[in-house]
């Protein structure tokens, strides 16, 4: 359901103020909600758009705000930023959820905004999960944005190019928010542990730095999830008969048992990763190829879909049997069995796959490099998708040696090591030469 929170005036901005960010019932709220940033300085991550001197931050600090779409993964700060936009702009804040609300709720929110506007007061209308509204529902906001009655802020985890209509996009600026880094999440956890008012400071918890990093890694870029995990761990912590409570390894084992990575089987990450897989194969980079294959399998993609996408040769034995049937077709199966029996074998692919899976569990949802992403829309091109991608077939030797296919944090990682026998001996020689050439090309 929609909710309406009165905004304090800009001259009362301070971290301890009540109203929007604090109340007598704070102790009943989850830790993640209590620790919601009350100023731009408290936001962790999002340095690209909110670091001191950045255009969006300068505009907010000056009280000059505009209608916008905030596009980013869960827990990256979209709702918090919308709340702060209203606060810094000295505007009323009104929110609706596209999951729970329909046109009646939207019309009611717009009517309230019109009443505020008539009394010289601006309204920030925050629409969570805006991509779930259909075209008619999205169109309802247009005249109110044009007249300045509302400052529209839409939050979405989906690509606005595909999910929002062009009329709405043309009236808003799209700000891309990123998943929060492990170091930034650790900073948020440390702040929660030290805060006596909103956080867990009164519990006198003892947590090792490595344990905080484990929680941050398990959160997979989601600050809200990290704070929730910390709160659960705090509830399970044992004081061992002392005045201090310890979050130890045994506690973390319970709390972090289910470590899932973010993935949308039919959305932005899906297409980014299949693009990265294709381009890694084209670039003759087996380490990147097995990494992206493992990432998609880890995310729950249908293995048959990946098999279809990677199949580029006829399945002769299968086709022969389907066309001829028994007994003639059985000869094709016999030939296949013989070929498989005498073909060189090793467990190198098995080892590479398991290593890639282990790295994925450790590093979480690393971003696909921008140059490997497809850019079918003007918005995506403007954001840098596909920029500087080198088509390997056009490069000398058929391989763009200086092109990176793994995520930045894994650049140079080796998963696949062919054995020194049979066909793989020749593959090993080729890979050693190719990897050396890549290092030399990138060092220039």
Task: Please tally the helical runs, counting DSSP H or I stretches of 4 or more residues.
Answer: 21
Strand count, sense and closure of the main sheet?
6 strands, mixed
Query: What is the number of strand segments?
Result: 8
The percent of residues in helical segments reads 40-55%
**What is the arithmetic mean of pLDDT?**
84
Going across the major beta sheet, what is the strand order? 1-3-4-5-2-6
Instruction: Work out the strand percent.
Output: 5-15%
The best one-word shape is globular
Enumerate the spans where pLDDT stays under 50 for 5 or more consecutive residues: 1-19
Secondary-structure element string: EHHHEHEHEHHEHHEHEHHEHHHHHHHHH
Gyration radius over CA: 27 Å
What number of structural domains do the residues give? 3
Distance between the termini: 57 Å
Assign the structural class, choosing from mainly alpha, mainly beta, alpha/beta, alpha+beta, or little secondary structure: alpha/beta
Outline:
With 444 residues, this protein is an alpha/beta fold. It contains 21 helices and eight strands. Helices cover 47% and strands 8% of the residues.
Pick out its properties.
3 domains, 47% helix, 6-stranded mixed β-sheet, 21 helices, Rossmann fold, 444 residues, alpha/beta, disordered N terminus, Helicase, Ruva Protein, domain 3, two-stranded parallel ribbon
Walkthrough of the structure:
The structure is a single chain. With 444 residues, the protein is α/β, with parallel strands linked by helices. It has three domains: 3-176, P-loop containing nucleotide triphosphate hydrolases (Rossmann fold), CATH 3.40.50; 183-255, Helicase, Ruva Protein, domain 3 (Orthogonal Bundle), CATH 1.10.8; 268-443, no CATH class. It has helices at 31-34, 47-50, 55-61, 78-88, 103-118, 135-139, 142-146, 160-163, 166-170, 182-194, 209-219, 223-236, 249-255, 268-282, 286-298, 303-310, 316-324, 328-342, 348-363, 378-382, 422-443, and strands at 3-5, 68-71, 92-97, 123-128, 150-156, 173-176, 205-206, 245-246. It has a six-stranded mixed beta sheet with strand order 1-3-4-5-2-6. It has a two-stranded parallel ribbon with strand order 7-8.
């Amino acid at each position: 359901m929609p909710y309406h929170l009165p905004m304090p005036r800009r001259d009362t901005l301070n971290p301890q103020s009540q109203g929007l960010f604090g109340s007598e019932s704070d102790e009943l709220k989850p830790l993640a909600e209590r620790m919601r940033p009350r100023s731009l300085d408290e936001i962790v991550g999002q340095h690209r758009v909110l670091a001191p001197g950045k255009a969006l931050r300068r505009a907010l600090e000056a009280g000059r705000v505009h209608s916008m779409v905030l596009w980013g993964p869960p827990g990256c700060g979209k709702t918090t930023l919308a709340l702060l936009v209203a606060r810094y702009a000295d505007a009323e804040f009104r929110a609706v959820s596209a999951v729970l609300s329909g046109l009646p709720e939207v019309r009611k929110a717009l009517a309230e905004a019109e009443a505020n506007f008539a009394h010289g007061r601006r309204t920030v209308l925050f629409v969570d999960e805006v991509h779930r509204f259909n075209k008619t529902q999205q169109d309802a906001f247009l005249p109110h944005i044009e007249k300045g009655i509302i400052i529209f802020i839409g939050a979405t985890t989906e690509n606005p190019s595909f999910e929002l209509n062009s009329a709405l996009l043309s009236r808003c600026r799209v700000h891309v928010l990123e998943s929060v880094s492990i170091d930034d999440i650790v900073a948020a956890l440390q702040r929660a542990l030290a805060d006596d008012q909103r956080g867990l400071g009164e519990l006198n918890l003892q947590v090792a730095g490595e344990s905080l990093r484990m929680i941050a890694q398990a959160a997979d870029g989601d600050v809200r999830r990290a704070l929730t995990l910390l709160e659960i761990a705090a509830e399970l912590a044992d004081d061992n008969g002392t005045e201090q409570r310890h979050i130890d390894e045994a506690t973390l084992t319970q709390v972090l048992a289910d470590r899932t990575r973010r993935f949308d089987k039919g959305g932005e990450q899906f297409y980014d990763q299949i693009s990265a897989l294709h381009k890694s194969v084209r670039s003759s980079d087996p380490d990147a190829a097995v990494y992206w294959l493992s990432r998609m399998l880890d995310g729950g993609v249908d293995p048959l879909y990946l098999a279809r996408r990677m199949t580029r040769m006829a399945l002769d034995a299968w086709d022969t049997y389907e066309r001829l049937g028994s007994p003639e077709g059985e000869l094709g199966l016999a030939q296949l069995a013989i070929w498989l029996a005498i073909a060189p074998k090793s467990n190198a692919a098995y080892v590479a796959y398991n290593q890639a899976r282990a790295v994925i569990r450790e590093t979480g949802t690393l971003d696909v490099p921008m140059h490997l992403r497809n850019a079918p829309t003007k918005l995506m091109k403007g954001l840098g998708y596909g920029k500087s991608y080198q088509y390997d077939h056009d490069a000398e030797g058929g391989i763009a040696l200086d092109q990176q296919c793994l995520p930045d944090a894994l650049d140079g990682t080796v998963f696949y090591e062919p054995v020194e026998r049979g066909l793989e001996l020749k593959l090993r020689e080729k890979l050693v030469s190719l990897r050396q050439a890549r290092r030399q090309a990138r060092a220039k």
